[in-house]
Write a structure and sequence with these properties.
Blueprint (H helix, E strand, L loop, with lengths): L3 H18 L4 H17 L5 H21 L2 H7 L16 H18 L4
Helix pairs in contact: 1-2, 1-3, 2-5
Length: 115
C-alpha cells in the first residue's frame, strides 16, 4: 500500500495529463485520454520501484507535451509528438511491444477516418 501523498501525486499527474491533452486535436485527445486512463489503472497495484519509473516517465511525457502545446511551438511546427528511439525497443517486454503496436494501429485507423 502506498502512502497518501503518493496517491495524491498520482492523481495530480493524471489530471495534469488530461489538461494538457485538451490542446491536442480531438482524435488524438480521445486516444491519449483513453491510453493514459488504461495505463494508470494498469499500474494501480505495482511495486514501489515500478511506481517510481512509471511516474517519472509520465511526468516527462506531460512536460514534453505541455511544451509542444504552447501556441508559439504549434505555430512553428504544426506537429505533436516525437519519434521513439529504436533502441528503446530492446528494453521493452513482449507485452509492451504488443501494446505499442496496437497503439500504432489505432493512430493509423484514426488518421484514415473522414473529418
Amino acid at each position: 500500500m502506498f502512502p497518501a501523498d503518493h496517491v495524491f501525486k498520482v492523481r495530480r499527474l493524471y489530471k495534469l495529463i488530461l489538461r494538457v491533452h485538451r490542446g491536442m486535436p480531438a482524435e488524438l485527445r480521445v486516444l491519449g485520454d483513453n491510453y493514459a486512463r488504461d495505463e494508470f489503472k494498469r499500474h494501480k497495484n505495482c511495486n514501489p520501484a515500478e511506481a517510481r519509473i512509471f511516474l517519472n516517465e509520465w511526468t516527462d511525457y506531460a512536460i514534453s507535451l505541455a511544451q509542444q502545446m504552447k501556441p508559439l511551438q504549434q505555430a512553428k511546427k504544426k506537429a505533436v509528438g516525437k519519434y521513439l528511439d529504436p533502441k528503446m525497443l530492446d528494453f521493452m517486454t513482449e507485452d509492451q511491444l504488443i501494446q505499442l503496436y496496437e497503439l500504432h494501429q489505432a493512430t493509423l485507423s484514426d488518421s484514415k477516418k473522414p473529418n
